[in-house]
TrEMBL record:
<dbReference type="Pfam" id="PF02518">
    <property type="entry name" value="HATPase_c"/>
</dbReference>
<dbReference type="InterPro" id="IPR013656">
    <property type="entry name" value="PAS_4"/>
</dbReference>
<protein>
    <recommendedName>
        <fullName>histidine kinase</fullName>
        <ecNumber>2.7.13.3</ecNumber>
    </recommendedName>
</protein>
<keyword id="KW-0597">Phosphoprotein</keyword>
<keyword id="KW-0418">Kinase</keyword>
<feature type="domain" description="Histidine kinase/HSP90-like ATPase">
    <location>
        <begin position="242"/>
        <end position="339"/>
    </location>
</feature>
<dbReference type="InterPro" id="IPR003594">
    <property type="entry name" value="HATPase_dom"/>
</dbReference>
<dbReference type="InterPro" id="IPR011495">
    <property type="entry name" value="Sig_transdc_His_kin_sub2_dim/P"/>
</dbReference>
<dbReference type="GO" id="GO:0005524">
    <property type="term" value="F:ATP binding"/>
</dbReference>
<keyword id="KW-0808">Transferase</keyword>
<dbReference type="Pfam" id="PF07568">
    <property type="entry name" value="HisKA_2"/>
</dbReference>
<dbReference type="Pfam" id="PF08448">
    <property type="entry name" value="PAS_4"/>
</dbReference>
<dbReference type="InterPro" id="IPR036890">
    <property type="entry name" value="HATPase_C_sf"/>
</dbReference>
<keyword id="KW-0067">ATP-binding</keyword>
<keyword id="KW-0547">Nucleotide-binding</keyword>
<dbReference type="GO" id="GO:0004673">
    <property type="term" value="F:protein histidine kinase activity"/>
</dbReference>
<dbReference type="InterPro" id="IPR000014">
    <property type="entry name" value="PAS"/>
</dbReference>
């Protein structure tokens, strides 16, 4: 047997629920007249419950509720054209303006002759102020970060210039070589910093990144571009900023090493930087077609550049593979796809 609730009983129950509701709410009839107002609504908007009932929401307060948005919202909801959810509107009260979120829904009592509308109102003024403060802080942080990046770039340029001037003044060829190496490393870090500053999405496109990096290295280390050239071959891979820094420093060290040792005297050739990925696996290779690694140099204790490459590769969970290329030398940094990933 199906039991039905008399419309008056359902309405009385709704009135009791609305009045005791913790959420600001109004129950309206087909004429937009307030049948019941929750205590929380009257408290939130400093209204006397006895003055609210029997009036329309547009008549509340000192006229601040009589706004076109609210009138339209009530009309379309009563006519069944829409069910309003999370509609935001501003309420200009006697004090500071308030930001409200309105929800309007028709209630079914089984009595089509007496439709009822439930209107709930949330005051999100404080939340919106907090969001604006957060946005302002983030904007200020971005401006400060941009300023910091400019200062870092300027500082790196100054350091690089001082190192190059020092290299020109010293008499020792060994010291001059060390200073030039330091200059080239500072310039590469400056290039890394510029690329990261230009990346707005937190990801770096490696093809453009390596190209810019190699152009910077070539400009500072290659005296005759017709004799020695730097080329980049890369897919459209993008990586996060942390990984791109490590890859950039690895490329810097391997390219500097190739430029120092692969083309002695007037020998010319090409250095190729290649990067390709498949899934989570990737391979970075720096290959030159120079004289190859002399046995004496290969047997020597690893230098600073080699130690840097090995440390960075370990950080990336990759391995370093060095091989003769006939001609030249090929150094690859290999990151294998994890077992079980297809």
């Amino acid at each position: 047997m199906t039991h039905t609730t008399h419309p008056d009983v359902a309405l009385n129950l709704a009135l009791a629920v609305i009045t005791a509701s913790d959420a600001p709410a109004l129950l309206l009839d087909q004429n937009f007249t307030i049948i019941a107002a929750s205590t929380s609504f009257c408290r939130a908007f400093a209204l006397d419950p006895r003055q609210a009932v029997g009036r329309t929401p547009l008549e509340l307060g000192d006229g601040e509720w009589d706004v076109p948005q609210l009138r339209t919202l009530l009309g379309v909801t009563f006519h069944g054209d829409a069910q309003i959810e999370s509609y935001e509107m501003d309420l200009d009260g006697p004090h500071a303006p308030r930001r409200l979120v309105l929800h309007a829904k028709m209630l079914d009592y089984g009595d089509l002759a007496r439709p009822r509308l439930l209107l709930t109102i949330s005051d999100v003024t404080e939340a919106r102020i907090s969001e604006k403060l957060k946005d302002d802080l983030l904007r200020e942080k971005a401006i400060l970060l941009q300023e910091l990046q400019h200062r870092v770039a300027n500082s790196l340029q100054i350091i690089a210039s001082v190192l190059m001037q020092s290299a020109r003044r010293v008499q020792s060829e060994e010291t001059r070589s060390h200073l030039r190496d330091a200059h080239n490393r500072v310039m590469s870090i400056a290039t890394v910093q510029q690329q990261l500053a230009a990346s707005r999405l937190g990801e770096v496109e490696l093809g453009a990144y390596f190209t810019q990096l190699c152009e910077s290295l070539g400009a500072s280390m290659i005296c005759d571009s017709d004799l020695v050239s730097l080329r980049v071959s890369a897919d459209d891979s993008k990586v996060n900023a942390d990984i791109s820094v490590s890859l950039g420093l690895i490329v810097t060290e391997l390219v500097i090493n190739a430029l120092k040792h692969a083309f002695p005297g007037e020998r010319g050739g090409t250095i190729l930087v290649d990067y390709h990925a498949l899934g989570e696996a990737w391979k970075l290779t720096v290959h030159d077609d120079g004289v190859g690694t002399p046995h004496k140099l290969a047997a020597a204790k690893p230098g600073l550049g080699t130690s840097i490459v090995e440390a960075l590769a370990k950080q990336l969970r990759a391995t370093v593979e060095t091989a003769g290329a006939s001609p030249g030398t090929r150094v690859s940094i290999v990151h294998e796809e994890p077992v079980g990933v297809s």
